[in-house]
Amino acid sequence: MSDSRASSLRALLFASSAAGMLVAAPAFAADVTADDGVIATADQQQPANLGTIDVNGQVRKPAPHSPEYVAPLVDTPRSVTVIPQAIIEQTGADSLQDILRNSPGITFGAGEGGQPLADRPFIRGQSSGNNIFVDGIRDTGGQQREVFNLEQVEVIKGADSVYSGRGSGGGSINLASKSPKLTPFTSVSAGIGTDDYLRGTIDANMPLGETAALRINLMGASGDVAGRNAVDYDKWGVAASFAVGLGTDSTIVASYYHLDSNQMPDYGIPLYTKLGGATAPRPDASGVLNVSRDAFYGLKARDYLNNTVDSFTFDWTHRFSEALTVRNVSRFSTTLNDYIVTNPGDGGSAQQIGGVWWMKRGTKTRWNPAQTLANVTDVFGKISTGGIKHSYDLGLELTREVNRNASYSTFSTSGSACPAPLTGFDCTPVFDPNPADPWTGVINRSAPSRSITETVGLYAFDSISLTDRFLLNLGVRWDSYQTQGVSINSTQTNGVWTINPLIPATPTGTPGVVALPKREWDFVNYQAGLVFKPTDYSSLYVSYATASTPPLIAGGDQNTAGTGQGSGNLANDILEPEDTETYEVGAKANLFNERLSVGLSAYRLTRKNAQLLVDAGPPATYAQVGEVEVKGVELSVSGNITPAWQVFGGYTHMDSELVRGASNSVNVGESLANTPKNSASLFTTYRVLPRLTLGGGVYYVSRSNGGNQGGAGGGTNRIYAPEYTRVDAYAAYDLTDTASLRLNVKNAGDERYIMRTNGVHHADPAPGRAATLTLNLRF
Q1: Is residue 479 helix, strand or coil?
Q2: Is residue 606 part of a domain?
Q3: 27 pLDDT more than 50
Q4: What pLDDT does residue 227 have?
Q5: pLDDT classification of 57: cutoffs 50, 70, 90
Q6: I need a surface site. Which of 52, 385, 541, 768 has the fewest CB within 10 A?
Q7: Quick one: DSSP state of residue 447?
Q8: Rounded distance between C-alpha atoms, residue 476 and residue 540, angstroms
Q9: Do strands 126-127 and 79-84 pair parallel, antiparallel, or not at all (unpaired)?
């Protein structure tokens, strides 16, 4: 990290601490004492329990924020995990991937497909990058998300189009933002650590009268990635929300969020295929090339990644009575995912010259701004009809998304010269890459393609109390999903892009600009669940749910400027959405005076209707008959076993299979990519002394196949990430009732493991051991 950047972050940390104390000075909150004896500041998450302490010192169990959840979690016949702010803070998380490590069964895909160099979670083996929401509204565009403004993260698993509309079928993730409260408080954190780690945050909540409040969150951070040469980051963010009518029947919340993140992008290390293709010697069974963990193939003089986000939200809620509440949320957001990154798997096969393996650096590039305008209306409440109780929600969702995509040319004019017979520049030894190699050249951006997507969704939910012990949970949703794209036919020579004038002008009237036809899909999805309650705090359930994935997002990532048409004999046909269904049975219980929540479920997920080559011909014949299946068991635990002992985690077993693949596919019968058979996590803390808490996390993931089917990554040549076990350590010491120190040691054993691989180009090594020390002040 540069000295100037380190100096600026140190100044930010000092300013954060000073500003936080100044903001807090006139508005100290009275301390309240929770039932477990832990000193707590009103409305703040506490290290010793996973609920929220209200102004009366009572623990409120974490629950999803959306009115679509018409029943408490214990009575919801679905696998739903709520990761509260306490876990986010205690684990030292600063990314969505850090948070979701605590929810087994979720993996992250490598940088390929529709969301390269962006969050690409896989839930129950299904790519779910398009199924990330913020406060119930889909968060579009490629991003690597921050956590400083999060109150909790909510994960629903299984086919969930009833909740989310179009989706991948594996589940969805909702990020719940911090919101204004009527209790004054300020939280300030300042952290330092190994690998030039610096991070500072301020969370200030200021009541403005009896029913209004302003909440401001600030974040600045920088550092290097442990164990990865030259990989660093620098980011800052601000979130501000203003609320009026708090504690009354009518509330308005207006909020703004901004994030600016700059980093050196990392595409990991090559696979064995770099040294001669699929038939090359394979020294390691995984297929990952045995190079140093810190081997970095990018160029500091050329590569970069910038993410920016701006989001404006207006939320109005009015409660007419217990039977009727109306909520309307509008949002306008823009995101930009902009990068040039070296892909060690591109650039052709390496060559052995003079006893040294040499390779050319290939590049991946993207300029991807996205814009979203959304409005969601919910009408919800509780009513009784004929002695039967209903908890219902009716909703309307309207969205318009504009997604543009372009790439960069990176024509090198000088730099690291290639030895003969390789020619040109951008060469490096495979086993000794130097990110400080010089580079100069021409960088130009191509004309962008564009897609405009408009959706309308109508939905209804009802939790029906048939008796004191039996509940029926129903949901239905209709969606209209339509999109139209514009593509640009262009070529680049020596770094200069030229629109191809030979393409006839289309209705756009511009040569080379091709307006693709508007495509529209309508689909209806359902869920139904029956719940039996042996006690007030436990339940047994069985449920069924469906999901639909239009062909333009069949990869589970983002909308594309495509046609939605098939291949070969289906070239003139508009493909139908892929269909997913989930059957699930389970049990839930709140134990120990509702301090601890546990859940156990078993499920079968089936995804059908993917386009496949069924006869190689000639002529080649395609049909929508592809099918995958995932069967699994999940165990979850969250809360306090004793007032001093906190646990959060679970175990997932997934038995996945490609049931039907392409003609003569060698992958049929194999487990799916990014779907490890076993995964488990447990983060636990214990208050060993009145002011000292110790703990840590253990994370296990079994072998996970690479992210692509077929080719070098499929069949007998399957690339995979080997199993690993990672251990984190945690300690916290209360200096005073309002000040504490927190020590996090991530990957304490310095385990060398592969987080993920796309199975064709590269594999991503996990960061090495990293330690951080954070001072937390709460007023």
Answers
A1: strand
A2: yes
A3: no
A4: 95
A5: very low
A6: 385
A7: P
A8: 22
A9: unpaired
Provide the 8-state DSSP code for 63: -
Contacts of 493 (CB under 8 A, 6+ apart): none
The band of 625, judged by pLDDT with boundaries at 50, 70 and 90, is confident
Report the candidate in 584, 472, 388 with the shortest Cα–Cα distance to residue 75.
Answer: 472
Band (681; pLDDT cuts 50, 70, 90): very high
**CA torsion angle 590 592 596 597 (round to 10):** -20
* Cβ atoms < 10 Å from Cβ of 470: 12
User: pTM for the whole thing?
Assistant: 0.89
| Three-state SS at 163 | helix
3-state secondary structure 172-235: EEEEEECCCCCCCEEEEEEEEECCCCEEEEEEEEEECCCCEEEEEEEEEEEEECCCCCCCEEEE
Question: Whole domain around residue 148: which residue ranges?
Answer: 34-180+246-265+293-304+322-734+749-769
Is residue 94 one of the residues assigned to a domain?
A: yes
Contact of 391 with 71, CB cutoff 8 Å: yes
The CATH number of whichever domain residue 758 belongs to comes to: 2.40.170.20
DSSP at 417: P
Which pLDDT tens digit goes with each residue over 331-365?
999 999 999 999 998 888 999 999 999 999 999 99
Q: Tell me the Cα Rg of the chain.
A: 26
Tokens of 387: 């002695």
Q: Are strands 250-263 and 304-321 parallel, antiparallel or unpaired?
A: antiparallel
CB neighbour list of residue 188: distance below 8 Å, 6 or more residues apart:
16, 17, 19, 20, 21, 24, 200, 201, 202, 203, 776, 777
What is the per-residue pLDDT across 99-144, written as a single tens digit (0 to 9) for each? 999 998 899 887 665 567 888 899 999 888 889 999 999 998 888 8
Residue 488's φ and ψ, nearest 5 degrees, are -115, 120
Q: Which amino acid, one-letter code, is at 657?
A: E
DSSP string, 511-577: TTEEEPPPEEEEEEEEEEEEEE-SSTTEEEEEEEEEEEE-GGGTTSS---S---B-SGGGTTSBPPP
**How many residues are recorded in the chain?**
779
651 contacts 104 by C-beta, under 8 angstroms: yes
Closest listed residue to residue 538, CA positions, set 586, 588, 600: 588
Higher-confidence position of 465 and 113:
465
Element (H, E) at 636: strand 621-642
In a domain, 465, yes or no: yes
In-domain check, residue 700: yes
Between CA 157 and CA 188 the distance in angstroms is 34
Q: 352-366: b or e for each residue (b if 16 or more CB lie within 10 Å)?
A: eeeeebbbbbbbbbb
The least confident of 540-554, 587-601, 667-681, 699-713 is 699-713
The stretch 456-462 carries a mean pLDDT of 97
Q: How far apart are CA 17 and CA 187, in angstroms?
A: 9
3-state secondary structure of 539: strand
**Nearest in space to 107 (alpha carbons), one of 745, 719, 567, 704:** 704
With beta carbons less than 8 A apart as the criterion, state whether 500 and 491 touch: yes
What is the number of structural domains in the chain?
1
Instruction: Calculate ∠ Cα 328-330-335, nearest 5°.
Output: 150
Q: Side chain identity at 658, as an amino acid letter?
A: L
Q: Which of 285-294, 490-499, 519-528 has the lowest mean pLDDT?
A: 490-499
Assess contact for 175 and 150: CB atoms under 8 A: yes
Using omega within 30 degrees of 0 as the cis cutoff, is the peptide bond preceding 435 cis? no
DSSP-assigned letter for residue 391: E
Does 50 have pLDDT greater than 90?
no
Of 548, 730, 721, 494, nearest in space to 164 by CA: 548
Q: What is the DSSP-derived secondary structure letter of residue 17?
A: H
Q: How many CB atoms lie within 10 A of CB 423?
A: 10
Are 83 and 99 in contact by the 8 Å Cβ rule? The answer is yes
Q: Which tokens in the block code for residue 493?
A: 């020579």
Lowest-confidence pick of 269-278, 403-412, 495-504, 755-764 = 495-504
200 φ, ψ (degrees, to nearest 5)? -135, 140
